[in-house]
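Um, can you check?
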Amino acid sequence: MMEPPRLVVITGLSGAGRSEAMRVFEDLGYFCVDNLPPNLISKFAELLHKSPEVQGAALVMDIRGGVFFHQLTASLRELEVVGLPYQVLYLEADEETLIRRYKLSRRRHPLEAQGRLVEALRKEKRALQEIRGKADVVIDTSGLTPLQLRQRISDIFRLDAGASSFQVRLVSFGFKHGLPKDADLVFDVRFLPNPYYVDDLRSKTGNDAAVDQYVMRFPQAKETLAHLDTLLTFLIPQFQQEGKPQITVGIGCTGGQHRSVVFANHLKELLLEHGSQALVEHRDLELRED
């Protein structure tokens, strides 16, 4: 049986990378439409499902639509009622990053005419809270290069993976550098003995065999890993049933150099053994500790 066309709604904060995202979807073979009025989504989806030559379509919808944008949630609900599947990709970035990007581009925010840039950004964020809650995938582009964003989108939405493909993204990080903003689940392994306080291991990372062996030699580390494996194995089908194409799991230690890296690597191997698609990102590995 032929897979139905994949419909992705791209939305999010102005300056967070929607234009770049649309270019990625175009390169992936999606039929892309920018700023389609929300009340036309159901008609577009019906046409899409009657066009077997189209494998996927991506619609960019954002605050530029003015009063029409507020119809988006209702229009998506119509798709659910008639059984037409879709996914929502929501792009965001922190306020400082958005301000910097606007200053570099010298463009005006769609809501800036009603106040200062900061006020416009905050008003937009409030207006998008409901649609963010419906998002299947949230990507925080604050620390991403265009190439990294392209890779993230390609990994999740490439058409040859099929609409039923599901991916677990494991992110090691340091709590001292902040939580991953797009994490669906966060686990804290700071209770384990810290290799940072072992002179021979301090300059190494969790990717080094000596650090891995040190962390995993403790019974509580092995037991914790087993519990996390069991929990994720249980949760993955629940997220799949909800229709999410990916979940992001954060594994945190103090600096993101040792324990979190070890655990992210081991969880990836366990998930792969179970047949899940898993990838690892060591967010803070390049940030050396003092």
Summary: Residues 219-242 form the longest helix (24 residues).
